[in-house]
Structure formats: C-alpha cells, structure tokens
C-alpha cells in the first residue's frame, strides 16, 4: 500500500467523545462523516489515550511521551513537539481553535515568564479562530484552503470543543426515549435527566461530525485532498460517570483514523496503539528523525502489516488532578490500575449529578470506593466491574502488571515517586470533588464545595 509523504497534514481532535462513533460500533448514526473517513482510510481498532482529562491527554500526541514523562505540562521550552518537528521539516504550522495548550501551568523555576506561554511552548507558527466552536473552525479552515498561501506545505491542527460539556442542545422526548447508553457504562443511572444529557451529548458530537464533513468537502473542492494526510482522534472518554477522569476503557479508549486518497481504503489495524505513537508515526511518514527518549513507537509497520506489535499501553491521571493520582497499564486481555490515594468513590460530575438526581448517583456510586489496586479480565469483563486483584488465581498477572507499571514510572522519574512532590503537597480538596463523609462515616455529596489545588511553591496556577 502507498504511504507517500503528504504535502499537507491535518489533525482534527474532538473533546470527550470516547469511541461513540458508528465505525467503532456505537448505535444511532451520529457520525456519518467520521464513519466515511474510516471506510475510505484506515481505522486503528484498539487505540488509547495517555490520560483521561483534556490537556494531559493531548500531551501524548504533542510529545510522543507519557504525561508524567514530558515537561511540556510545566512549559519547558526545550520539550520537542510535533508542530516544532514539522516546522523544521518545512511545514507551516497553524493551530485552529482555542488551544488547551494555552493553559499549561508554568513553573517559574524553568525561567518562563510569558503570561500565556502555551502557544509559544507548543510551537505553532500561527493561531487562528480564538473560539473552539466546530462550525467556526471549519469555516476558517475552508477559507484558508481557498487562499493562495495554502499551496505551500502545511500542518493544521483543529481543536473542536465538541463534545465537551455543557450539553445545552435541546432534545425531544423521542430522542430521549431512543437513548442507548454505552455498553461499557452499565452503571449509568437511567433517569430522565441522564437520558436528556446523553441525547444532547450525541447532538454535540453530531455537530462536530458535520464540521468534519465540511472540511473533507473543502479539501476535495480545493484540489488538495490527493496530497493530504488527515488524522482524527479524541482526547479521552465521554464526560459521564465512570468514564472521563478514570482509567477504565470507558475513559481512555478513543479513535484513531488516518484518511487520505493515498492511504489504504477501509483498512482496520488490529492491536494496541497509544496517543504517544502518533508523533513517531508522523515522523516516519514525513521522513524526519524521531526525537530520542520517546515512549511511543511508530505505527508505520502496523499500517503496512495491518496489526501493531505493542504488548501494552500505559496511561495515567496525574498533575492535572494531583489529589487523586492514578497509573495503569493494559494488555490485550488485562487491565491493571493503581490508585495512589485509594478509598474514594469515582470522580463526581456536578452537572450530571444535578440533572440525573443526587440520590440516584449516591445509590449507584457511594459504596463503590476504589481500592489500592484493580485488575480486570477484559475478555470476560469488558465493563471492568469484577476486580480480580485479591484473587489468588491472578496473583502472577497482578504482580507482572504492577511491576511493569512501577518500571515505567521509575525509568521516567515519575514525580509521583518523589518524597516531596506536587502530589505530596495536595491531600485536601481532592479532584474527586464533591465527595465527603457525613457524621455517620458514609460517603455523601456536597455540591457547594469549591475546588482548590495548591500547586506548591514556585508554580503558577
């Protein structure tokens, strides 16, 4: 199959959608354009994010590293990124949409003093479309494609806000009645509020899909499609209980689709892949040297063979939620999760709780506190409900994956292992905010809690 160097490269990243797309088996026909890309291009069937919250999850794409391994989150100007590499390779790099990268914290100890250092640190030549509405971004990109300046090689990154909450789009009673909750979320409280929220989420996802269809049409009309490689992905799972902000598959399983007329049509690549594999893959496709010390590996051999060679993927919840650090690995069959601050229920999403009903949420999740370690047999328990960590029959599996997790953290000098770290300074007001124990010692919810994180001395909030 052809894997020719593209003259034009486009990245489209959506928020909070998980794999709720028809080409990944989701019902409802909410993503015909994304499904079309998968049919015309190639779809990676078992792709995962490196994190379960917006900004950290994108670090893997930008740097080819795990979240705890990169210093981009602390605005280190020496960190190598995908736009910096493509700029050196002769591509004009442009960010379309409000970049999450603008909000990375800056550690003054690294000498960075810019008020808004994100764009400069990440390395795009230019930013356009301050907002992140998908319709506006699609319009801006189509205008750019019609401009004579777009004849030179470019790398465009489009960050849609869809389908990030709040889910304000109105839905009918029929649409609420037709809701089918994801199979990986069997604990979803089935209330009128939950159904309205999920139906509205699907409408936001559909808006993003239509914008992608507009961009594909503009590429064809501009004559640039033949020389384009477009890759599409999502930062992490959907913003519903036991998905976003967790390391279950519902929180980290995401799509990866490569599209372009010179690329395989309808190829499904089997095997594990990670967000941190995207950067080295693009380097190989473009023909530029990969940075040293990456956590990702190129998917180019997998593209040619139809399957990846990864034995595992690694993921985490970390500096963004320092009160609730979590690390984990996943093989084809097993998932291992280590909760470094165990004993709490899953993170609580305020607007979901209020809409679905606080008592329903308490009845479902208050008694499901997380242990120090979790182990799941994904072949027999894809929703990850039956924790095998204390089962003698799985002791060897548990130890092997726990050792692997610690090995990765140690090799990368994960700050979580330091005696004095960002994590050790944050023990109150946890990121599982709104949970608290009542006088009887039972978990309850206080939706008026303010969220505060002490980043520690010398670190800008």
Q: Can you tell me the CATH class of the largest domain?
A: Alpha Beta
Summarize the main sheet.
9 strands, mixed
Low-confidence stretches: 457-461
Q: Which CATH-level-2 architecture of the largest domain?
A: 3-Layer(aba) Sandwich
CATH topology type of the largest domain: Alkaline Phosphatase, subunit A
Instruction: State the share of residues found in helices, binned by percent.
Output: 25-40%
**Helix and strand sequence:** EHEHHEHEHEHHEHEEEHHEEEHHEHEE
The CATH superfamily label of the largest domain reads Alkaline Phosphatase, subunit A
**What is the number of independent domains?**
2
Radius of gyration: 21 Å
Question: Overall pLDDT, averaged?
Answer: 89
The counted number of beta strands is: 15
Task: Give the helices and strands, then pairings.
Blueprint: E1 8-14, H1 32-40, E2 42-48, H2 54-63, H3 82-88, E3 92-96, H4 118-122, E4 126-128, H5 134-146, E5 154-159, H6 173-177, H7 192-222, E6 228-234, H8 249-252, E7 253-254, E8 256-259, E9 267-274, H9 278-286, H10 300-305, E10 313-317, E11 326-330, E12 334-339, H11 350-356, H12 358-365, E13 373-377, H13 395-411, E14 435-437, E15 443-445
Parallel strand pairs: 1-5, 1-6, 2-9, 3-4, 3-5
Antiparallel strand pairs: 2-7, 2-8, 6-8, 10-11, 11-12, 12-13, 14-15
